[in-house]
Amino acid sequence: MSRPLDVDDVLALLRAATAEDGVRPLSEDAELRLQHRAPGGHDLVVRSPDGSLAGYARLDGGAAELVVHPRLRRQGFGAALLDQVLELAGPTALDIWAHGDLPGSAELLATRGFSRARVLLQMRRDLAGIDPHPRPSLPDDVRVQPFRPGRDEDAWLRVNARAFAWHPEQGRMSRADLELREAEPWFDPAGFLMAWRGDPDDGGTLLGSHWTKVHPPGDAGDEAVGEIYVLGVDPDAQGMSLGRALTDLGLAHLRALGLAEVLLYVEEDNAAAVRLYESRGFRRFAVDVAWRRESPSS
């Protein structure tokens, strides 16, 4: 009989891997779903001969993430975990995310027919040079105000889906996904900036938003680190310089909290965005890679 999943054991494994590798082994979404036992997806484990947890994987739709305890690597547990994932996924296209692009992941996946398909850059910059009191130029009928829990969710989800229609993860964020994040200790409406045209309670239209996040000490570095978490503008509002205005306001908010550094994630092949961020002082810091196995019929 298989043991029920012990979430605390898995979280301890994740902490050990983070301490060893300097990068979190699971995406935020996968870790949230694990912690809250959210419906959907599959949790898989492998154990060492003494019964201790050796590895964990989460398969959700066409994507998976794997992690093996640092002291038990190169002993076959990663391969055993991958075998479980492949058996459960069946003969369909599958992406496996390797956070940090560590050598062991490449060695394991390349020999199983996977190839590099997507590269996600983490970029960072210090906040010392950020204007603490930006005065962005906005149209007279546009105002920026904090997110209001319980009132602004539907408007934000609509604009997020439109702004990220091309993105395989962000563009599919649901009300349940949003509420999971609103329940997290790090969630702060004051750092979730919404740009409205007109009165949001009387027919106003949400044009874009900048959702910032603060990682506590030990999560993304020894000290707390800010993040440009989600920055999106409705396609119909392009050309109004809202993205730049919201960026400046969000960075000023993070600086006002006393943070020294900010990070963001961007697809490596989004050359225009990478150039923009580099021009704003961001530098490449870390890499996540999606390894893909195509469906035999593709």
From TrEMBL:
<comment type="function">
    <text>Catalyzes the transfer of acetyl from acetyl-CoA to desacetylmycothiol (Cys-GlcN-Ins) to form mycothiol.</text>
</comment>
<keyword id="KW-0012">Acyltransferase</keyword>
<feature type="binding site">
    <location>
        <begin position="231"/>
        <end position="233"/>
    </location>
    <ligand>
        <name>acetyl-CoA 2</name>
    </ligand>
</feature>
<feature type="binding site">
    <location>
        <position position="227"/>
    </location>
    <ligand>
        <name>1D-myo-inositol 2-(L-cysteinylamino)-2-deoxy-alpha-D-glucopyranoside</name>
    </ligand>
</feature>
<comment type="similarity">
    <text>Belongs to the acetyltransferase family. MshD subfamily.</text>
</comment>
<dbReference type="InterPro" id="IPR050276">
    <property type="entry name" value="MshD_Acetyltransferase"/>
</dbReference>
<dbReference type="GO" id="GO:0035447">
    <property type="term" value="F:mycothiol synthase activity"/>
</dbReference>
<feature type="binding site">
    <location>
        <begin position="66"/>
        <end position="68"/>
    </location>
    <ligand>
        <name>acetyl-CoA 1</name>
    </ligand>
</feature>
<comment type="subunit">
    <text>Monomer.</text>
</comment>
<protein>
    <recommendedName>
        <fullName>Mycothiol acetyltransferase</fullName>
        <ecNumber>2.3.1.189</ecNumber>
    </recommendedName>
</protein>
<keyword id="KW-0677">Repeat</keyword>
<feature type="binding site">
    <location>
        <position position="213"/>
    </location>
    <ligand>
        <name>1D-myo-inositol 2-(L-cysteinylamino)-2-deoxy-alpha-D-glucopyranoside</name>
    </ligand>
</feature>
<feature type="binding site">
    <location>
        <position position="169"/>
    </location>
    <ligand>
        <name>1D-myo-inositol 2-(L-cysteinylamino)-2-deoxy-alpha-D-glucopyranoside</name>
    </ligand>
</feature>
<dbReference type="InterPro" id="IPR017813">
    <property type="entry name" value="Mycothiol_AcTrfase"/>
</dbReference>
<feature type="binding site">
    <location>
        <position position="265"/>
    </location>
    <ligand>
        <name>1D-myo-inositol 2-(L-cysteinylamino)-2-deoxy-alpha-D-glucopyranoside</name>
    </ligand>
</feature>
<dbReference type="Pfam" id="PF00583">
    <property type="entry name" value="Acetyltransf_1"/>
</dbReference>
<dbReference type="GO" id="GO:0010125">
    <property type="term" value="P:mycothiol biosynthetic process"/>
</dbReference>
<feature type="domain" description="N-acetyltransferase">
    <location>
        <begin position="142"/>
        <end position="298"/>
    </location>
</feature>
<keyword id="KW-0808">Transferase</keyword>
<feature type="binding site">
    <location>
        <position position="28"/>
    </location>
    <ligand>
        <name>1D-myo-inositol 2-(L-cysteinylamino)-2-deoxy-alpha-D-glucopyranoside</name>
    </ligand>
</feature>
<dbReference type="GO" id="GO:0008999">
    <property type="term" value="F:protein-N-terminal-alanine acetyltransferase activity"/>
</dbReference>
<feature type="binding site">
    <location>
        <begin position="270"/>
        <end position="275"/>
    </location>
    <ligand>
        <name>acetyl-CoA 2</name>
    </ligand>
</feature>
<dbReference type="InterPro" id="IPR000182">
    <property type="entry name" value="GNAT_dom"/>
</dbReference>
<dbReference type="InterPro" id="IPR016181">
    <property type="entry name" value="Acyl_CoA_acyltransferase"/>
</dbReference>
<feature type="domain" description="N-acetyltransferase">
    <location>
        <begin position="1"/>
        <end position="136"/>
    </location>
</feature>
